[in-house]
Amino acid sequence: MKCPVCRKETQVTNSRSADQERAIKRRRVCLACKRRFTTYERIELFGLEVQKRDGSREPYARHKLELGLRKALEKRPVSEEQFQKMVAMIENDIFNLEKEAVSSEEIGHSVLSRLQDVDKVAYLRFASVHRNFRSPKAFEKEIQKLEKSGR
Fold first, then answer.
1. DSSP 49
2. For residues 136 and 142, what is the distance between their CA atoms, to the nearest angstrom?
3. Per-residue pLDDT tens digits for 25-48
4. pTM for this one?
5. Which of 95, 94, 99, 125 is nearest to 109 (CA)?
6. How far apart are CA 52 and CA 151, in angstroms?
7. Does 114 have pLDDT greater than 90?
8. Cα gap 79→30, rounded to integer Å
9. Whole-angstrom Cα distance, residue 37 to residue 28?
């Protein structure tokens, strides 16, 4: 692997499993500039498809999940470590369904259940898009559900 700073060769100094053994965390050092950085090797869910609401299917893409979560968590007090852990748990939920095609609805439910425990504002942001809120009343109902759940 090339160094992200000087683009020279790097060497692995330490490897260990991460994200419930679904990734390998590698510490690396650049042989030229001596900078240290971390990389992750992750299991890709090849063959898994997402069934969209309109009936179409597309291959599962982790970056889309991350993008949606980042938008919901924008300017919220959630660390990168918490974020990556949440993505890994959501992927684990999806993987454990043991299906070839997972509906976007199922993915959305998993995201909402994880966000509910981490950040209520991010939960509402994501829910407003996922559940297609059309009025302030929809927000009020969702807030009432959140308050009743006590999570």
1. E
2. 10
3. 999 999 999 999 999 887 665 678
4. 0.68
5. 94
6. 29
7. yes
8. 26
9. 5
